[in-house]
């Protein structure tokens, strides 16, 4: 009677462990699909792939402009902010080009190098942009990314999804997938050993 209860408990434990392993594999596959649909296209479509050194030529704050809302967003997201324009000398080609914070900055507003977050206090926005402009004037040389193909005559300060960020995004689903497969393999080995012991 006791042996029967132990076998039943063992089978229940194996079933739960197997469900856990299959669940982990299924979740990791969903995460792979999500990353492949959202992050990978941004990474592959970015033409600013080569890192070089940029030297600031001028950093000016123009009159206020309106932040254009993206397609499908609410009109409340439109807000005025001072337009910071940073021009740099691209050491790779010696050209004078405009600097943008990321690929998204150029897409949202090609007139400005930086788009601040929406804040209630316009003085805070102005102070932040002035601080960024003074930092560019203070630190004249810094790494930036440009398009080696020449389709874009501008540079960006940082990529939205660099290579390290993409690898880090794939790290967690890979660990989950490996852990799920390991659990399934261990359960199958345990079942095989149990059957082998029963035959003996």
Describe the protein.
Keywords: Glycoprotein, Ion channel, Ion transport, Membrane, Transmembrane, Transmembrane helix, Transport. One of its GO terms (biological process) is detection of calcium ion. One of its GO terms (cellular component) is voltage-gated potassium channel complex. InterPro entries: K_chnl_Ca-activ_BK_bsu (IPR003930). This protein is an alpha+beta fold and 200 residues long. It has 2 domains: 50-161, no CATH class; 162-199. The chain is built from 4 helices and 5 strands; from the N terminus they run H-E-E-E-H-H-E-E-H. A 5-stranded mixed beta barrel has the order 1-2-3-5-4. A hairpin with a 7-residue loop joins strand 4 and strand 5 (154-156). The two termini are 20 Å apart. Mean pLDDT is 81; it is low at 69-76.
Largest pleated sheet: 5 strands, mixed, barrel
Low-confidence stretches: 69-76
- Mean pLDDT over the residues: 81
Number of helices, where a helix is a run of at least 4 consecutive DSSP H or I residues: 4
Order of helices and strands: HEEEHHEEH
Organism: Panurus biarmicus (Bearded tit)
Transmembrane segments: 20-43, 166-187
Membrane topology: Multi-pass membrane protein
GO molecular function, one term: calcium-activated potassium channel activity
């Amino acid at each position: 009677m006791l042996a029967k209860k132990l076998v039943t408990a063992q089978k229940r434990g194996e079933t739960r462990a197997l469900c856990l392993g299959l669940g982990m594999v299924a979740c990791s596959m969903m995460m792979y699909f999500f990353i492949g649909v959202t992050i990978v296209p941004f990474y592959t479509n970015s033409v600013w792939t080569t890192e070089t050194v940029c030297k600031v030529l001028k950093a000016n704050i123009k009159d206020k402009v309106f932040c254009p809302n993206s397609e499908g967003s609410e009109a409340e997201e439109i807000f005025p902010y001072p337009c910071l324009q940073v021009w740099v000398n691209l050491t790779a080609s010696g050209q004078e080009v405009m600097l943008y914070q990321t690929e998204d900055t150029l897409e949202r507003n090609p007139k400005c190098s930086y788009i601040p977050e929406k804040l209630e206090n316009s003085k805070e926005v102005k102070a932040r942009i002035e601080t960024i402009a003074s930092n560019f004037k203070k630190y004249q040389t810094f790494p930036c990314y440009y398009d080696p193909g020449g389709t874009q005559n501008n540079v960006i300060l940082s990529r939205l999804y660099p290579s390290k960020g993409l690898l880090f995004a794939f790290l967690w689903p890979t660990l989950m997938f490996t852990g799920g497969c390991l659990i399934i393999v261990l359960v199958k080995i345990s079942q095989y050993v149990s059957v082998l012991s029963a035959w003996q």
